[in-house]
């Protein structure tokens, strides 16, 4: 049973657990496509996987408005996030620094989120999205900074047109969104620089 | 006045760490782009590594092993001071051995030993903007980066050639990252530039006073700017290190007397010691054990 | 035999020990107390609080003692401490109209409601060294007047009543006050963040810039509309209570300069303002700040930007003395790796021009990668 209390499920040791979770996502961003583990202790309401809760606790605070998928919005998760981190809900998706989506909602469109400007490409959203699984889906070849030659990823549950949308995101560079896919306690990062291709069978 | 300051692990408060961590993630996602961050006032002077210290403090954990170098050496006073700071505020394990370190904070050098996967090299950066000496205004240089308008930089380098027959930039030599951003590698000698290219280590750059963080993920394309008729070259030394006999490394010139006596020794002290421990000896070197006695 | 220099750690420890010795000075002389600094060097304390952006007289006094009287070092110490403090929220804007006034002068009106009040000023002292201060001679108790229960209205409010001066500038209701210690500077700045930067800016730097405007580098024809020094109450709004609660009092110096402005296509002829507000008693700083603030508003009034004092990026990027001192002084850190690279280049270029080395051979050559 998911603990639905907004007062529990945070880090027991915010300093060291936050550091460990950050290193997981930093290593993930620096090595796109590589699956990283989080410690699995945080638990948030709304069916949020532990890795997503850990990222929220690690990265979000009152300086970073967030937005949520519809089913999360209806859950106790926003109250949990507000209590645990002090982060405000963004007025619109365009004001969000972070956005969280679980499998209960459709994979979100990238449009409508901030992608930064040519002067400030860092002022862009980081999307944190739960997928069915980080492995076992159709194989994709990943190339770009952080990847020696190429890497193969196979997240399961991406929308059919994901590759086209991701390519579109890539053309915006240096603007663009960054993506963290999560499943359970694990995460996989796709910064905007990663180029994906369907792998020839 | 009682109850003066008890500090958090790694000195910075958690809110500050989060802010720096978010900047680091965006910096990794946009290699070579300088992310503005709300640099804090650190208990050491601006220009003395406050940017590097903040980056290190934001990523450091209890299982890390930290190495701090200045000019390639672990025992220069500022390196000693920064290392002592992290021992005090984070009780972290420290080392002088490049191989053993998980995080290496550096000023002005990249270690000679090839860095490996999982290591993080944190640079202290005084002026992060490679265009700053051509255009002092942030409002202007920001536009130039936005438009990839780097003509001014090429003009400057070419004027050097016209005037001196050489590109007269010997350190902080500008690089282009993934064909997009021109980036300042910090005041490392251009000798070290090739080590940045396709490095296995994550490279993070912190400029505290100028409030910028930028990054090179591992395996990132980093090219030193040059011209077809004047290709980029690095310094090389005529003689090997006088202590360990190493060649193809960066050497410090040591003045021995006031009659022009000079010797050249490894700038990277760990590399030099490691070689001497392995029995390599330069023409003025002594075996390591003897020297310690 | 050559052995590489070692022992940075011991050198640092010994340097700290020597520093502590020099700070203490002659042991036959009684150590100076924090309370003495706080109460008898109070203007030094005020400057440290102002430029450290932290109102805490006793910690400022401690910083002055610890820094051996080096003001920028003391400011640095207090700022490094300030950084570690948690942020509980923002106070309400202080009402300087309700100030308990210790000093108030206006150069624009001979007399005005609330009157002029000289207060504890050096202005009309003859600058003759006072031998009496060599000893602890008794000092008379000062004469004070009972503060008037009414607010002493500000000179700019009087002018504003006639529509002769631009109104107090305001930000939109939605505007959250910026905080330059928590967010990176972004040019052009909004006026709130710019004023913050000026308020913690180096007194000497702002003084020189203000002086330059008077000498024709962006002349703004200022009058000292009013300078007031005194205590104001700081209040914080607590949403849980639904009203503001007082947190305590701080001493502030406020200067409003009244400047000429001819008017433009969109604005009628009227006076404009420059604003200075500083912790503690620091008229020089508040006045300099108001002149520089006005000069920096050039763009707002469609004035040509021709002088350093009008150049926001130049002024703000260089006004912070802790940053400036750090970067200037960092030049004493070792730079021998870079210097080696430059040595090599100069030797090589001299060799190419046929200039023989005086007594040593260049050890480096350029090699293609």
Automatic annotation (TrEMBL), chain A:
It holds the Pfam family PhnH. InterPro entries: PhnH-like_sp, Phosphonate_metab_PhnH. Its EC number is 2.7.8.37. Keywords: Transferase. It is an enzyme of class 2 (transferase). One of its GO terms (molecular function) is alpha-D-ribose 1-methylphosphonate 5-triphosphate synthase activity. One of its GO terms (biological process) is organic phosphonate metabolic process. This is Alpha-D-ribose 1-methylphosphonate 5-triphosphate synthase subunit PhnH. It comes from Gellertiella hungarica.
From TrEMBL, chain B:
Keywords: 4Fe-4S, Iron, Iron-sulfur, Lyase, Metal-binding, S-adenosyl-L-methionine. GO terms for molecular function: 4 iron, 4 sulfur cluster binding; alpha-D-ribose 1-methylphosphonate 5-phosphate C-P-lyase activity; metal ion binding. One of its GO terms (biological process) is organic phosphonate catabolic process. It comes from the Bacteria. Its EC number is 4.7.1.1. It catalyses: alpha-D-ribose 1-methylphosphonate 5-phosphate + AH2 + S-adenosyl-L-methionine = alpha-D-ribose 1,2-cyclic phosphate 5-phosphate + methane + 5'-deoxyadenosine + L-methionine + A + H(+). Transmembrane segments: none annotated. Pfam families: PhnJ. Belongs to the PhnJ family. Catalyzes the breakage of the C-P bond in alpha-D-ribose 1-methylphosphonate 5-phosphate (PRPn) forming alpha-D-ribose. This is Alpha-D-ribose 1-methylphosphonate 5-phosphate C-P lyase. It comes from Gellertiella hungarica.
TrEMBL record, chain C:
Residues 165-186 are annotated as: Disordered. One of its GO terms (biological process) is organic phosphonate metabolic process. Its EC number is 2.7.8.37. GO terms for molecular function: alpha-D-ribose 1-methylphosphonate 5-triphosphate synthase activity. Pfam families: PhnI (PF05861). It comes from Gellertiella hungarica. InterPro entries: PhnI. Keywords: Transferase. This is Alpha-D-ribose 1-methylphosphonate 5-triphosphate synthase subunit PhnI.
